[in-house]
Design a protein that fits this description.
The protein is an alpha+beta fold. The protein has two domains: 2-63 and 125-197, D-amino Acid Aminotransferase, Chain A, domain 1, CATH 3.30.470; 68-120, no CATH class. It has six helices and ten strands. Strands 4-7-5-6 form a four-stranded antiparallel sheet, covered by helices on one side. A three-stranded mixed sheet has the order 1-2-3, covered by helices on one side. A hairpin with a 3-residue loop joins strand 9 (159-166) and strand 10 (170-176).
Length: 201
């Protein structure tokens, strides 16, 4: 976990900010002590729960996918996300046929115990992922790069993966944790450079 002190705020940079992790508790402790912290605990909770993330994005004029919650039914083709305590938006599943959907739903619902979130997609649509580091990207198209800037303005998460639905443009599908091991050399160099420069405002 990296910390960056900048402009009377403390920035917490980590692979994941999930509830009950060290970064999350560090954020909550700082807030309890009156220390302005980025991201905030509410930013983190909003970002990692897909339906809430979509609504917050839409409210802030970020193109976002429509979503539904179900225990069994899904309109195909679709992107599926689990909603149970152990699920992560990093685990998204594109399903295009009833057989594949049935398998995925059984997995993400733990045999029907939990609901899941799905987002309808067009026949030709695809899913793309783009890493955002303080709202900056490497090797992403201009449209995705602009989305990263807006996502950082709204959610304030220094290191996050944007899951995007590509279909006549891009729409935000989810925000997910990023493992340091998944960063390219260029992305790791950018992160180190931004931390050394103290860029986080």
């Amino acid at each position: 976990m990296y910390t960056l002190n900048n402009h009377d705020s403390v920035y917490i940079i980590n692979e994941s900010y999930f509830y009950k992790t060290e970064p999350y508790y560090t954020i909550v402790r700082n807030e309890h002590e009156g220390i302005a912290t980025v991201p905030s605990s509410s930013d983190v909770l909003d970002a990692y729960i897909v339906p809430i993330c979509m609504e917050k994005a839409r409210m802030n004029e970020i193109p976002a996918c429509d979503w539904n919650i179900s225990y069994s039914h899904v309109d195909l083709p679709a992107v599926i996300y689990g909603l149970n305590y152990f699920s992560t938006p990093s685990d998204h599943f594109v399903v295009r046929d009833p057989g594949g959907a049935k398998k995925v739903i059984k997995h993400v619902t733990n045999h029907g115990k939990y609901p899941f979130c799905y987002q309808r997609m067009g026949e030709e649509a695809s899913v793309a992922c783009c890493t955002s580091i303080f709202g900056k990207t490497i090797d992403c198209c201009q449209e995705a790069a602009s989305l990263a800037e807006r996502v950082y303005e709204v959610f304030r998460i220094p290191l996050v993966e944007m899951v995007l639905l590509r279909e006549e443009g891009y729409r935000l599908s989810a925000l997910a944790p990023v493992k340091y091991s998944q960063l390219t050399e260029e992305e790791m160099a950018m992160l180190q450079s931004l931390l050394e420069m103290g860029v986080g405002q």
